[in-house]
Amino acid sequence: MGNPYDTAAERTSVLGPTLRFKGELHADEELLIRGHIEGSITHTQRITVCAEGVVKASIRAQIIAVEGTVEGDLLAEKSVQVKETARLKGNIHAPNVSIVDGAQFNGNIAMDVAKRAASQAAHDSVARTPKTATQAK
Predict the structure, then answer these.
(1) How many whole angstroms separate alpha carbon 52 and alpha carbon 66?
(2) Residue-level pLDDT, tens digit, the chain, 137 residues
(3) Looking at the DSSP assignment, which residues form a beta bridge with residue 104?
(4) Is this structure's pTM higher than 0.90?
(5) Residue 137: is it exposed, middle or buried by C-beta count within 10 angstroms (0-12/13-18/19+)?
(6) C-beta atoms surrounding 111 within 10 Å
(7) d(CA 91, CA 105)
(8) Which of 5, 41, 43, 136 is 20 to 30 A from residue 74's alpha carbon, by CA?
């Protein structure tokens, strides 16, 4: 088994509940936000604003999950998930959006259907590709 931190997709960073950050945040690993962030967030992976997290920032990432409080616009390449504990004030732009009953949301949603279709087609072609002996292990 290799080092779990070999690729950015395998890493997770946690910004703890006592953390206060103001500015531009950029990273390539999955991010869990439990503290307070103000500014802008740009990631290439998944971002989760945990139930105790408070974010006043625009967020750009592959996947964005909101369980806490966010004031700012969300732009996701794949999807945005707004959980029942979420309080979101801002616009959402993503090919897939889910808002669970009980969530507080005030804003607009723009879903790019062409991007969603392209993403699904790419996923389907990968799923149909036969695995080699080394991939199957």
Answers:
(1) 11
(2) 444 455 545 678 899 999 999 999 988 889 999 999 999 999 899 999 999 999 999 999 999 999 999 999 999 999 999 999 999 999 999 999 999 999 999 999 999 766 555 555 555 554 554 544 444 44
(3) 87
(4) no
(5) exposed
(6) 14
(7) 9
(8) 5
